[in-house]
Design a protein that fits this description.
Length: 135
């Protein structure tokens, strides 16, 4: 088995999260999520951004505080596998808000479905989700 990479390197290598990676770079979070942890990231895949008009995404990227609030709502301190999530009803994000966890025909985080689970990283875990989480 190859050595695990950090959250950022793994997410980049997967290629499923280009808009999320752009946001991490814009907010200067690459170093933090490369070196600190453990964190669990609920990462929206690229198709999650498709319903949002480009100008709305551009405006969000120009509002540092708003963008940081959205990103921080997708991140939880600690490493939570799907097995861990199955026993929970909520998780507190690093923004201080709570994510609702439901288990029925898979695992939902708020309204998003986990579509690729338990992507192991050296400093945490990524779960790919099909929607953007909004606090």
């Amino acid at each position: 088995m190859s050595e695990l990479k950090n959250l950022i390197a793994t997410a980049k290598e997967k290629g499923s999260f280009p808009t999320l990676m752009m946001a991490a770079e814009k907010l200067k979070l690459v170093s933090k999520y490369s070196n600190e942890g453990p964190f669990t990231i609920f990462a929206p895949v690229e198709s999650a951004f498709e319903p949002i008009p480009d100008d709305v995404i551009d405006e969000s990227f120009d509002d540092h505080d708003y963008l940081l609030g959205i990103i921080n709502y997708h991140i939880v301190e600690g490493r939570y596998t799907t097995k861990d999530l199955e026993g929970l009803t909520e998780l507190e994000t690093i923004s201080g808000n709570k994510l609702k966890i439901t288990v029925k025909d898979g695992i939902k985080v708020d309204t998003a479905n986990i579509i690729e689970a338990d992507i192991e990283c050296s400093n945490g875990i990524i779960h790919a989700i099909d929607e953007i989480l909004i606090p």
